[in-house]
Amino acid sequence: MSTSAQQQLQGQLQIVVDAHTPDSDLIPKHLQIMGADLRVQQSAWMNGKNMEQELTPGVYMVRLNLASGKHLEQVAHIQEGQVTKLDFDISRFSPRESQEWAYLTKASAGNNPEGPAYRSGNKKESVRLPNNITAQRWELKQGVWTATDDIPIKNVSIDEVGETYTFYVPEAMQVLELQVPGKASCFVSLPPVSEIICMIKIAEGPENVVPELDISISTPNNKAQVLLSLITSGDMARAKSLSSVKDAAELLYSKMRDPAAAAIGGYFLLKTGELEKMHDWANNLADWFPWMADGAIIHAWQVIQQGGPDMNIKAIRDRLIEAVNRGIPVYTEGLRLLYDGLTMLSFEFKQQDEAVEQAFARIKQYMAYADMSQETTTFTGIYPDQPGGTKKEDTLSSRPVKKIE
Amino acid sequence: MALYFNQIQQGPQTHILIIGVGGYPYLNGGTQAIPQTFDGAQLLGQLSSPPVSAEAFYNMAMELHNEGAWIKPLGSVNVLVSPDPTAGNLFAGQTLEPATISNIENAYLDWKKLCNSDPENVAIFFFCGHGLDKGEHYLLAEDFGQRPEMPWKGSFAFDMTRRAFFSCKARTQLFFIDACRQLTSDMLRTDLPANPIEPPSLLAKDCAFNLTQKAAAANESAYGKKNEVSFYTKALIGALKGNASNNDIGEWRIATGTLSYKMNSFLQLEAPGEGYPQRCISTTSDTTDIIRFTKPPMVPLKITCTPDAALPFAELSCLDPNTNQGERRAPQGDPWETKIKAGLYKIEASFSGGQYRSNAIFRLVTPPSVNQILNCM
Questions:
Q1: Which of B240, B235, B233 is nearest to B63 (CA)?
Q2: What does the pLDDT look like over A46-79, one tens digit per residue?
Q3: pLDDT by residue (tens digit) across B235-280?
Q4: From the CA of B183, how many Å to the nearest CA of chain A?
Q5: Helix or strand or coil: residue A87?
Q6: Which residue of B has its CA nearest to A341?
Q7: Minimal CA separation from A386 to chain B, in Å
Q8: Cβ separation A36–B286 shorter than 8 A
Q9: CA atoms of B330 and B341, how far apart (whole Å)
């Protein structure tokens, strides 16, 4: 059969994705076209608004998957020589255009509070909304945490819909502190990129109490952010289809432009066990960004996973202690690996290595107050170096941190 | 070792250790209750759900074995269970081995040895009982609280133990922990012990396919109704029996990654609107398939019409959309309840008379069940 004859037997499926904003069109979305038996016939990532696909005539289920775990499904009737158009309205997932990125990429963002799937329990009306929320940014430089008043969140009220903010911050070890009167402050690591988008809203839940806040953080690197969401949720099959090992290695190699994306690439390669693809880049990430804990953690874990009888335990030890001295990992995956690595070192040295024990004790405190479901390291506490507890009236704006040696 | 199932052979197999602790004799309501010294222990009592949950998990494992669904055939199931004082008959015909700390340690080491016999083995660990958490998750054995002056003696540090298990050769390792993760005020003031069942080692590389799933997030609780399977275990069993399966590659399979990213949605289905703020937390590495069904899942399907009065006149059908072949039902007064293979269907109500409007829709029919109401106004 000639090529033209084959084409005559096909019909065309046109996919159009409707979002609130053009920026959302650029967020990778996973499209699956399934037969009636739900076997996947075609699978592709969409990085734009439109896609076309030639298909044999028949009835198909078309599913558009988002990194947040949400999906939309429609049935397509493909007829010979005809065009079938499907519109996927993903704007329905978000109450406001400024928040769309969070609802499309973050599982923790939950459901649209103005949509039918929102789960607030039956006591929503009696929930007291937190107000007078104020934020500040803490930066760790030369062993001192210093608060800076450059975040545009002052005495705001937050409800279920929430608010979105954009910050322009330096490349540094830094955390955002959200102060809620009468509650422990919430600290969130900020990725080292110049532009950060942040959505703050009441966490979805049925509790009839002053609710906890959900804080979502993102950077303009859509592909890295989607990859981070997928590896955080454990959807590794989709993560691997989005990012080949080569792509992830390129993220890691791109560290000079985007060290946050490089860290995400490093965590992905560790999860998939592709250690040889990391070459010496994790070591470089750790060396070239001496204020970022994640590089040191990724390099330590590359050495751990490579294993072997001549494993350099001193290098692992030094890197993990260095990571603790650098502050807090940007990503929760880094906090988990730091805790696991120090656990093993503590046993390796039979609890006799003082520096390891100090580092381990410090990280245990963070673990006790961290929300491990978040992508970026998130914990409650008094100061960036003091997880747990509630702040008193007199607060400090500068906190030296003892270096572990 | 309470091996309830033993078909250990050479070659890759699935080996399961199940621990259900509901009876805590030294805690509130226990048969030998004694005053406890720290507030964490003072607040804890008897649990009716974990033994029932452990039994349900065991039954699920055996059902999958009987269907030939484990990709690595079932080799062994070892069970430790401590029923609460009010528990009914559990594991009929089996001798119950209590989940004391010493039995847990022995069973864990025996199970690890079995798992270690082949790198292609699948290791599955299931625990349901009390837990406390301060960065490290402590799981409490039956004899927790026996020595109030040494309160952590009847517990083990789970996260460290899980880390230690990476020294096992099995490339696929699954840990399901259905326990609370509350942090009490005197835990904050105390350095808690590093008491894993075995010490973790730097020389142990992570396994290729890890899924470690906890039923609750840190500082949160895992819930269940009295004498019933807990919400998380119900969701997990449903997922393993087919809810988490897909036919992406032309065979209905369940992957570890799917269990990770879909479990919270399954958990929400178990207690809709009841106000349980439970969310599970997973730690994963790469993903692999562990269950394969030879046939598509059969999905309970209920079809009815609105208004109700239309139903006695409606011919209902559920058809393959490409072939128009499938099941039909003549008009009857009750909703049509049937079971069909998972898939995409054309579901239709048609009327020979003109008093109601025929209606057809395309519907994805997937586990756990589908309820379709056709508007025939």
A1: B240
A2: 989 999 999 999 999 999 999 999 999 999 999 9
A3: 999 999 999 999 999 999 999 999 999 999 899 888 766 665 678 9
A4: 8
A5: strand
A6: B202
A7: 13
A8: no
A9: 20
